[in-house]
Amino acid sequence: MLKHVTMEDLRLRFFAPTKEFSHEFIARLTQLDYARAMAFVAFDEATSELVGVVRIHSDSVYESGEYAILLRSDLKGSGLGWTLMQMIIEYAKSEGLKAISGDVLADNTIMLAMCRSLGFEVKSDPVERDICNVRLAL
Question: pTM to 2 decimals?
């Protein structure tokens, strides 16, 4: 899937230009502690290729969770991101979490617009001016 994500989309997701991913980095993304984390993935039915993933990691007291999402670049704007975000929100609600939050680069206008449309509160980070903090009370 990562081969189908543009350098710009990788920068928007990981907050830095990323050309290669180490084995350790891939392991952290794919090996979850299901007591505190969950991920939902989307596959292309025709090719069985991974096309998107959304994940959430709860805090230590299991009250809130931080989300992250990544789609193949050629599928942005298709509604897949919206669907994955709705799934992770519903999952968080079913687990009894009180909020979902995330950090989004201020120039990631598509993600910020989606967060607003899903009801997230969007605020500029008081320290990192190029980052917005998004939060959805559940």
Answer: 0.85
